[in-house]
Amino acid sequence: MTRPIVMGLGSPHGDDQAGWLVVDFLERMGYPSERLRRLRHPAEMLDHFAADETYLVCDACRGSESQRVARWIWPDERLRGLHGRGTHDMAVSDVLELARTLQRCPPTVEVWAVAGDSWEPNAPPRAEVFKAARDVAETILKKHAHA
Amino acid sequence: MNGVDVVEVPILTRVEGEGGVTVRLKQGAIDDVQLRIYEPPRLFEALLCGRPLEDAPDITARICGICPVAYQMSSVHAIEAALGVQITPEIRRLRRLLYCGEWIESHSLHMHLLHAPDFFGVSSGIELAKRFPQEVQRGLQLKKHGNRLLEALGGRAIHPINVCIGGFHRLPRREELAALIPDLAWGLDAAIAATRWAATFPFPDFTQPYEFVSLCHPDEYPFNEGEIVSSNGLRIPVSQFDLHFQEVHVAHSTALQAVRPEGKTCYLVGPLARMNLNRDRLSETARQLANDVGLEPMCRNPFRSIIARGLELVQAYDEALRTVREYQPEGPARVTYEPRRGRGCAATEAPRGLLFHEYEVDEGDRIVSARIIPPTSQNQRQIEADLKARLSQRLVDGASREELALDCERLVRTFDPCISCATHFLKVRWEETA
Fold it and tell me: In this structure, is the dihedral angle defined by the CA atoms of residues B430, B5, A85 and A72, taken in order, positive or negative?
């Protein structure tokens, strides 16, 4: 069984780099680079979906210090309620729903989110987010070590 | 009971930005419709004052994620007018190519994911994809082509960074653009198919006595240059914009509206206006398609604007393909200029319509004043007029409140409004006096 494709969503702005950090850590830990994607916008996921692959999506989210990392198996009602705010952006859940409708992704997708609260342009992520992203990468690697 | 009946309808979806509609009924008839835009002013004009003029294309691009090129183009042309800069034909061609990318991206998204669902009674592009998976896939593919063209020429798909006063920071290499040819060739055929598909939609029977306004150029479908013309016979240089168009403030909107000063009448900008005023400037492929799909010579049905968007999509692919095939990098990437005090204005055709910019610059290369009049802002008064007419028609038909609320949303979406650009839709509120 091949390892899942890990898609890290992010931007260079503060804690929003969390998804990219997970992908960076996985690459350094030896996860096959051809199974890693660094993306800026959820809609870009549509370019990478194929029905016969499995996917992990890693993104930053707003959250609390008490729960730094969250994991959902999509479809999940909590994710479905999160829609993009305008015509120009699609939320992760919207893109997953569209991809499933178009039969371009498997029926379930694992979604990891690292909570952040600092989004300053071009600022580095905070140490807590850096550590949480590494924890997520280690968990993913351990779970899929023998794939 | 105070005699006022208020009905709340959820936020309008599939438009950009936030605002609302208040519908007032009197004795069972539509008395007044207000497009309430309550998104805070974004103050971009004030932000530009005192900044180096070279910052204008990059700052104004930030006004919108889907039409940043329009803001870049209007700003650089206006500042170049202030500085007396004449760009080369090659730079001019590449600027039109960049605009093609933006029209492809914006029009394909609006046609397939935002507007088409309204004709099939579904609430989203995701729902539409269950019924028309191939068509939605096609729309996504076309949008991607637009993004790739923007990346190749503008440096990135959203908020491109390669535009500067006098030209571009860097000309693309021939092979960078040539790599796009297969996509553009496929996309031209797909855009034709998309337009034929859109022309079969069940359009409501509704027309309005619009005054259409757009740029018009003697030799080409308008993007960056031309006179301002209207279906009422107006033909003026862009520098006379203020004599014939006036911004007005209304209490229910944080975005200025625009009217014609003489009768305070509204007017329409956007694809339908451009198509009606420039149909003979379409490429042969697009012009033939317009005839084939039966688009009337002066279409006044706003719901059929989706056909105009389709034809402009074909136009953009046709021109982009031709430009890319012929492209050979030559000449300077940018024309140099000497600092000087001056004032200049320009209008270009954003996907949603005429976008006017005016700047005053000083001898130290600083912006002294800036003024930006976006297309959605200009269309606001027309949207209110259309809503009033359409809802009155539907009331006579016996439509329920729920149906009327849906009609509001559907009609507003035909304008593809960008409320964030205009600062910015949408809850519908009903107020009924006995």
Answer: negative
Closest Cα partner for B348 from B221, B167, B219?
Answer: B221
Cα B160 to Cα B113: distance, rounded to the nearest angstrom: 23
B17 contacts in chain A (CB < 8 Å): 86
Interface check B110 vs A, CB under 8 A: yes
Helices (H), B34-161: 44-48, 56-61, 68-83, 89-109, 125-131, 133-154
Query: What CA–CA distance (Å, rounded) separates A131 from A18?
Result: 10
Using an 8 Å CB-CB cutoff, list chain A residues near B14.
Answer: 87
Q: Is the dihedral of CA B199, B200, B202, B205 positive or negative?
A: positive
pTM of the shown model: 0.88
Bridge partner residues of B7 (DSSP): B430
Q: Is the pLDDT of residue A132 over 50?
A: yes
Measured in degrees and rounded to the nearest 5, phi and psi for residue B46 equal -65, -35
- Report the DSSP beta bridge partners of residue B215: B228
* CA contacts within 13 A on the Cβ side of B284: 1
Which residues from chain B sit within 8 angstroms of residue A46, using beta carbons? 140
By CA distance, what is A97's nearest residue in B?
A: B126
Other beta carbons within 10 Å of A77: 8
Encode pLDDT of B94-150 as tens digits.
999 999 999 999 999 999 988 999 999 998 888 999 999 999 999 999 999 999 999
Q: Quick: pLDDT tens for B392-434.
A: 999 899 888 888 888 888 998 899 887 655 443 355 566 776 5
Separation CA B127–CA A86 (nearest Å): 17
Tens-place pLDDT, residues A82-107: 655 555 567 888 899 999 899 888 88
How many Cβ atoms from other residues are within 10 Å of residue A145's Cβ? 11
The closest of A42, A16, A19, A25 to A116, measured between CA atoms, is: A16
Q: For residue B337, count other CB atoms closer than 10 A to its CB.
A: 17
Dmax over CA atoms of chain B, in Å, equals 74
Alpha helix segments (H runs only) across B245-331: 271-278, 284-292, 305-326
DSSP string over B392-408: HHHHHTT--HHHHHHHH
